[in-house]
Amino acid sequence: MAFFLEALFGGLMAGMLYSLVALGFVLIFKASGVFNFAQGAMVLFAALAMARFSEWIPGWLGIEDKFMGNLIAFVLAAAIMFMLAWLIERLVLRHLVNQEGVTLLMATLGITYFLDGLGQTIFGSDIYKIDVGMPKDPVFLFDSVFPGGVLVNLEDVYAACIAALMVVVLSLFFQKTGTGRALRAVADDHQAAQSIGIPLNRIWVIVWFVAGITALVAGIIWGSKMGVQFSLTTVALRALPVIILGGLTSVPGAIIGGLIIGVGEKLSEVYLGPFVGGGIEIWFAYVLALVFLLFRPQGLFGEKIIDRV
Question: Which of 52, 138, 232, 250 has the fewest CB atoms lying closer than 10 Å?
């Protein structure tokens, strides 16, 4: 039972991180109808900015306190993500209003490669470390219940709590603020939102910035665990089955889908891996996504589209 709980907790922790990356896809698609293939590049770019600023700030400002240095680095990285959102809207999105979805998809692919090159040019291409003070040592829980206890990585617990807090903040933002309600109005009907005075261009800047902040938080967590390297862009590929499972237009779906994928990967690797030769954790999510595409393409919480002719 303890071994099962270890795998379950590990899956839940990983699932929260998948959900955090998937949220960037969902937010942008809901507000602009763009499937943002650049989300992985945004995670990498934001993580690079955070890692390098945390290295440079002590020398620039003479700050020895690590917390203050990380805080300033986070603010600067967030400012860069805002500038990036503004430039994407100004230079790309406003010129592609009412274009076909394939055109917008190709635009995000172009943004992906541009961000990869720009990040390497500005911040370098080495492997960088992000140290935000999360503990690295594992601990044993419930040792009075199970012999030997349940092994849990504290860094994963902290990361999952941060991801959960981010999800709660985003939910409150969408439900309780005027800007959040405007974003939901744009998501429902662009033309109707414009007709009542909601500025579409400003909304797009906001939603890309929110997705950028989400990418920054995800980049910090993944960078703290694995280091910041250019393979970090593949994190977005791990989030694709999550949004297929949960639904491309559903924020709760991104959360539930991430948890299902995370737990499914861990449990399948532990209990099914010995029978199929291992490696099932790599492809389990994609097979599950394929099943959903065949039988429920809108996902668990997505909107079913019915075209009448």
Answer: 138
Total domains in the chain come to: 1
Instruction: Mark the ranges of the chain whose per-residue pLDDT is less than 50.
Output: none
What's the full length of the chain, in residues?
A: 309
Q: 167-188 pLDDT, tens per residue?
A: 788 878 877 887 777 776 766 6
pLDDT score at 222: 82
For 20, 110, 131, 205, 240, the CA distances from 115, given in Å and listed in that order, are 20, 9, 23, 17, 20
Q: Where do we find the tokens 């590929």?
A: 237
Give the per-residue pLDDT at 73: 92
pLDDT at residue number 169: 83
Q: Is residue 306 part of a domain?
A: no
At 308 the pLDDT is 53
Q: What does the block give as tokens for 125? A: 């291409």
> How many angstroms separate the CA atoms of 49 and 220, rounded?
10
Residues 6+ apart with CB under 8 A from 171: 251
Task: Look at residue 187 in the predicted model and tell me its pLDDT.
Answer: 64
Q: Which residues contact 1 (CB under 8 A, 6 or more apart)?
A: 146
Place of tokens 């809207």: 89
Asked if the structure places residue 271 within a domain, the reply is yes
The Cα 76–Cα 235 span in angstroms is: 23
Domain that holds residue 98: 2-176+205-295
181 falls within a domain: no
Q: Is residue 28 part of a domain?
A: yes
| pLDDT reported for residue 165 | 85
